Amino acid sequence: MPRSTHYFKKQTLDYIIQNFDKNIKILDVGAGIGTYFDLLSPHGYVNIDCVEIYEPYIRNFDLENKYQNVFLGDVCELNINFSDYDLIIIGDVLEHIDVLSARNLLNKITNSFVIVAVPFESEQGEHFGNVYETHLQPDLTLYSFLTTYNGYYPLCVRYDYAIFINQEINTVLFENEERELPENYKEVIKSFFNQVNFENIKKDDLMKYENKNVSKTTIVTGLWDLGRKNIDVSFARSYDTYLAKFSELLKTDVNMYIFISPEDEEFIWQHRKKENTIVNKMTIEELKTWFNFTEKTNEIRKKESWLNQASWLSNSPQATLETYNPVVMSKMFMLNNVTIWNPFASDYFFWIDAGITSTVHYGYFTHDKVFDKLPNFIDQHKDFVFLTYPYEGGNEIHGFDREAIAKFSNTDYVKFVCRGGFFGGKKNTINDLNGLYYHYLNNSLTEGFMGTEESIFTIMMYNHPEIITQFMIGQDGLIWRFFEDIKDNNFLERVVNSQIRTLDKKNTALYIITFNSPNQLQTLINSMLEYDEDFVFKPQLILLDNSTDLSTQPKYVEICEKYNITHIKKDNLGICGGRQFIAEHAEENGFDFYFFFEDDMFFYPKKGDVCKNGFNRWVDKLYSRSLDIISNNAFDFLKLSFTEFFGDNKTQWSWYNVPQSVREELWPEKPKLPVQGLDPNAPKTNFKNINSIGDLPYIDGEIYYSNWPQVVSREGNKKMFLETKWAHPYEQTWMSYIYQETKKGKIKPAILLLTPTEHNRFDHYDRELRKES
User: Fold this and answer.
1) Measured between alpha carbons, how far is 417 from 476 in angstroms, rounded to an integer?
2) Which residues, 6 or more positions from 547, have their beta carbon under 8 angstroms from its beta carbon?
3) 3.90.550, 2.60.40, 1.20.272, 1.10.287: CATH of 217-496
4) DSSP state of 130
5) pLDDT per residue over 220-259, tens digit each?
6) CA–CA separation, 717 vs 509, rounded Å?
7) Which of 138, 424, 498, 560 lies at a CB distance of 3.0 to 4.6 Å from 350, suitable for a disulfide?
8) Whole-model pTM?
9) What are the start-end ranges of the E strands in 518-623?
């Protein structure tokens, strides 16, 4: 990424101030957005040159106005006299260079002091068209760095990141509050450096450093001349009018990130200061290429079937202007990108239209300082906000067929529309919603339906109210009402369903059912530790011990004490009886989420391996990411494995287990079961939406229930196991019931497109001991 992480910046700054005069000459290798210039310049270090390999970063982040000299190119190939510099900073760069080239680079630097900052075990590919963002050393660890790059000493270390210097040190600073250092890290350091002390730093001190540009909020906007003055008079707007209104918005002193045509850059600097403004120059032709759907939107806007939906549509900007939809539909993508670049180290990000002051007085931004009050609004509600207004009647919404938008929105009738002039919230939620936005935009355009960005936002609001705050403005759709309420801190009346989501991912349990085999349990735990140790160390571990062989108890107790597992001993409740007990126990103890495992469902942490259906067996950080998926989408349960021992989720196994009357109703084309065995033509699972969180894809729809590894939400637990109970439950009973509830829309399941676990009962027991409930 163009921005270096904030980790250890305060400690790096303190070290430089303590050891170097202000007049030293510094080289910043891999400047990106200019993180180290922004870190050092407020403290008098201004004699700084930089190297940047990616030319757009020089242009977009105004590097030539920050640094004395800017060298464009690969630092390994440029003819730079490193001995001219007193200090060379290589921050978040080495991982982008192959080992041999990186070693040769450091060997060239013989007379300068060097600071190297690198992440550990960090995979990354191309980002935003920049192939140089790829990590060529994704397997770096503390040990491999010290053995590969001789003469470098750790200054600051945490589990995933470190700062090294080419001078001997006496004290290593380390942070282990967020996550414990790997057990061998201190031993590794001691093995390299005999006389060294360790000093703990608090997590809260990791990122604290004086920087005048650090702000809670970044406002993102953009403006291009689309030629709107030349269209039908009822829709015409002159570009000068837009610029005049934009100049009013630019009077605010909030930090702003602005996308704009190169010819309008000077206009920005007439109204803004460079210390709180980033300009990203992009021609309209570049934006058309950057937006992945330009060809599709232009294809749809010319279709008679689309144009004939409403009398006004053929004269509208989206119909007559080639670049209108590419621009407005790029707002979410631009906002998301700025959360990643994050030039002002902000926590909150909002898009606002450049011409917003046509309907919102700029005094809200300059005098009332509403932008500064937005974090308070977000903190009191969900992490993202859309403004909506009532919208009923007509056969289309902004050109999007009304029946189709209702179908995409999973509702009978769309009664409101989201505004596109203002939206935003916290970084992580924006990142998640950006993926959903891309999904809905791609699917709707592929099916030939097109409105504007507001159509897609509306679909998102209907489908994901659990993570989006809905603020209802007036019938006229004017946004000023939102800022009026923000100004007065009086916004509860207009917030739809203002109840704050209370589920806490930290309040999670992991249940394991075991029977007569401590070895099975220990093997499962070992596989968790190897795959993702968070499964063992993050949740509250609870063992339901169904064993009938009491000689196993001492070993079970030993394992439970070792891993801080709550040991619940029952007589043999059976697999499903135990599953019901777990559901009731989770509710009684108030867990917001819980994972469920049997003791023979092991993880297989083999990077690169795939299951028989072609899905990966391994992804990084599965524990936290699966909780993010179920939480952010309000799923009731999330199955962790697509391919199971007896089959896979392509086939709808509930078909075998529902009552015959239900089978005839739901599958009229396939109403009868086979006389014996399985039907090779059994109905397939009806999937709906495929999404991803990073490189982890998941899919929702009519996912059948089974007693395989899963994570269940508090609400899902009630709907699946507690509202309706059976005296003697069976897996097939739950499969049938939960499927029918899913068809009614009462239960919302999903499944990972991943196969991280596999069934392996190696300690067998007599068949007569097997018990369901």
Assistant:
1) 11
2) 514, 515, 516, 553, 556, 569, 572
3) 3.90.550
4) B
5) 999 999 998 888 878 888 999 999 999 999 999 999 999 9
6) 13
7) 424
8) 0.56
9) 540-545, 566-569, 593-598, 601-603
